[in-house]
Design brief:
6 helices; 124 residues; single chain; mainly alpha; globular
């Protein structure tokens, strides 16, 4: 993965400054792509952990960074490319989760499964 450009870094900083905007963009993008990404449950569980008042600040920062990368329109690999478009998002999320795995609880995961059941169409 290539290093972030100045524009990408500025976009990430701006996205994390406005938490409500980040939340809205997260849910908007998730609704569009939830059925196309195999890591949707991890992503939503990470979101719930990052927005949980009991989560330590360090963990929130790591997870919000990964979530911000997911919602950014600037991407190392375009999300429009079939199959590989979300590979970089998955890698960033996996790295973040590895760092904070103990903080993502079964409660966050259960809430994620419930949410995804409401967001994604039934699989037949």
């Amino acid at each position: 993965m290539k290093p972030f450009t100045k524009a990408e870094m500025d976009a990430m900083r701006a996205a994390t400054r406005d938490e409500e905007s980040l939340k809205q963009r997260f849910w908007d993008k998730l609704k569009r792509v939830a059925g196309k990404i195999p890591f949707a449950e991890d992503l939503v569980a990470a979101f719930y952990c990052a927005t949980d008042s009991k989560t330590p600040s360090r963990v929130k920062l790591i997870l919000l960074g990964a979530i911000t990368y997911f919602v950014l329109p600037l991407d190392a690999v375009s999300d429009l490319l079939p199959l590989i478009g979300f590979a970089d998002d998955a890698a960033v999320l996996a790295a973040a989760i590895t760092q904070v795995a103990g903080s993502i609880t079964e409660e966050h995961r259960a809430k994620a499964r419930k949410t995804l059941g409401e967001v994604t169409p039934e699989q037949e």
